[in-house]
Amino acid sequence: MAFKLSIFLIAVEFLLVAYILLDIYAAVFIGPNDIVSEPEDSVIGLNATNEDPKVVGLGMFAVDEYNKLTKSNLKFGSVVKALYVQSNYMLLIQVMDETFSASKQYGAVVNRQGNRMSLLAFDEYNM
After folding, report:
1. What kind and span of H or E run contains 2?
2. Angle, CA of 117, 120 and 126, to the nearest 5°
3. What is the pTM of this model?
4. How would you class 32 by CB atoms within 10 Å of its CB: exposed for 0-12, middle for 13-18, buried for 19 or more?
5. Alpha-carbon gap, residue 90 to 109, rounded angstroms
6. What is the DSSP letter of 48?
7. Cα–Cα distance between 92 and 80 in angstroms, integer?
8. 16: confidence class by pLDDT, cuts 50, 70, 90
9. How many whole angstroms separate alpha carbon 88 and alpha carbon 119?
């Protein structure tokens, strides 16, 4: 019985890792002319992410949450790319800090369910 349970847990972990890697791949390699739709009512076009107040709000939320968690002082600049998958938004965000000589890009994953948002990931993006 324990052996079957172990195989089941390994299979579930494998599927979870595959799902996460697929989300990361989609966030990084999505094309500039792609359109990603959300089941509610809006369509996020990657060329117009800073014109969509919902996407800008998610980007600002991600930077604010990261600053609270790490006691950093990053300043939100803009959302470069956005991708919506299920209830997760993958964002590529341009930020500034007084220690940077130029702006940097950070990748963020924000989970949004109704009015509740949570920051799942936030890390510097290096091409």
Report:
1. helix 2-29
2. 125
3. 0.62
4. exposed
5. 5
6. G
7. 5
8. low
9. 10
* CB neighbour list of residue 93: distance below 8 Å, 6 or more residues apart: 59, 62, 63, 76, 77, 78, 79, 80, 105, 106, 107, 108
Q: Give the number of other CB atoms < 10 A from CB of residue 33.
A: 8
Amino acid code (one letter) for 29: F
What six digits make up the tokens of 73? 């002082």
Residue listed under structure tokens 């494998």: 14
Identity of residue 99: T
Angle, vertex CA 17, rays to CA 14 and CA 20, nearest 5 = 150
Residue 93 amino acid letter: I
Which residue, chain included where needed, has tokens 């890792």? 17
Q: What angle do CA 44, 47, 20 make, to 5 degrees?
A: 55
What pLDDT is stored for residue 3 in this prediction?
46
